[in-house]
Amino acid sequence: MAQPLIRLEDVSAGYRHRPVFTHLSLTLDEGRFAGIVGPTGSGKTTLLNTILGTIRPHAGRVLIEGRPPGRTRSGEVGYVPQLETVDWSFPVTVEQVILMGLYVNRRWLPWPSREEKRRVAAIAEELGIAACLHHHIRDVSGGQQQRAFLARALINRPRLLVLDEPTAGVDIKTQHDVLHLLEELNRQGITILITTHDLNTVAAHLPWVICFNQGIVAEGPPREVFTRENLAATYGGELAVFDHDGHLLIAHAPATHA
Predict the structure, then answer these.
(1) Distance CA 134, CA 95 (A)
(2) In a 10 Å sphere around its CB, with 0-12 CB exposed, 13-18 middle and 19+ buried, how is residue 257 labelled?
(3) Mean per-residue pLDDT for 149-153?
(4) Rounded to whole angstroms, how far apart are CA atoms 5 and 255?
(5) What's the pLDDT score for residue 18?
(6) Is residue 258 very low, low, confident or very high in pLDDT (cuts 50, 70, 90)?
(7) Considering just the CA atoms, what is the radius of gyration of the chain in Å?
(8) Cα dihedral across residues 88, 143, 175, 189: positive or negative
(9) pLDDT > 70? residue 164
(10) 234 touches 35 (CB < 8 A)
(11) Secondary structure string (H, E, C) spanning 134-162
(12) Apex CA 161: angle with CA 251 and CA 190, to 5°?
């Protein structure tokens, strides 16, 4: 049986003295590919930051492989931020972005070794961005930027990969490319947790979903969780759920008129 990789036990967390969620308990088994969905302001990013250890919970306990986030093995957790939070004027190349992922295990030398540069080249080749390694990060496409930050997170071969809105701000083809890439990484044994606003992408690609609004509304396979009742409780409004040729589709429910 799969063992819990992430465990939150009666956790309350937020900013200063304002809690975003309280008394939250959650487990995520090793090997899961899971998505957290919910409206803006529901606490999805706060939940990720609590798991990553960048936010200290007001109460309760967070464990990754049985240890608090700050005591996990170096490089065990990889993180990919929202692209919209990145300062694109910062003067770095794609190669330098990927090298940043090695700093958690850095030696005292300020420049990368030949072996480290070989690792960067290998993962860039694997993710299809080898040709743009020496390009400024702002000068490559949105899909290449996403892959560069994904490579930065993967360079230490983490067991857990956490991504905040990985399909936001990119075109539909890039969205599907990123999700197919994450599916392949999950098949290789990496546990993956993402946040997203795209319910249809979750329904099409992810085997496990957590509906979240300052707490867990429901969790499980999309076909079991994406019901009108659960979505209404999550989003505070009516959403329509359809089965189209075996594919689950979610849309705003049409307004009714007298």
Answers:
(1) 6
(2) exposed
(3) 93
(4) 43
(5) 87
(6) very low
(7) 19
(8) negative
(9) yes
(10) no
(11) CCEHHHCCHHHHHHHHHHHHHCCCCCEEE
(12) 100
What are the residue ranges of helices labelled H in 86-141? 94-100, 114-126
Q: How far is CA 18 from CA 21, 46, 52, 213, in A?
A: 9, 12, 19, 16
Tokens of 239: 């959403």
Q: Dump pLDDT digits (tens) for 21-51.
A: 999 999 999 999 999 999 999 999 999 999 9
C-alpha span between 129 and 95 (Å, rounded): 10
User: Residue 31 has which token pair?
Assistant: 């090997």
CA-based end-to-end distance of the chain: 54
The 10 Å CB-count burial string (b at 16+, else e) for 222-247 is: beebbeeebbeebbeeebebeeeeee
Q: Are strands 4-15 and 18-29 parallel, antiparallel or unpaired?
A: antiparallel
Of 98, 93, 170, 101, the closest CA to residue 137 belongs to 93
Category of 78 on φ-ψ map: left (φ > 0), alpha (ψ -120 to 50) or beta: beta
Beta bridge partner(s), residue 163:
80, 194
Widest distance between CA atoms in the chain: 73
Give the model's pLDDT for residue 257: 47
Kind of pairing between the strands at 77-80 and 160-164: parallel
Residues comprising the chain, all counted: 258
Average pLDDT over residues 131-153: 93
**Mean of the per-residue pLDDT values for the chain?**
89
Helices 142-154 & 172-187 angle (0-180, nearest 10): 20
DSSP codes joined into one string, 8-35 = EEEEEEEETTEEEEEEEEEEEETT-EEE
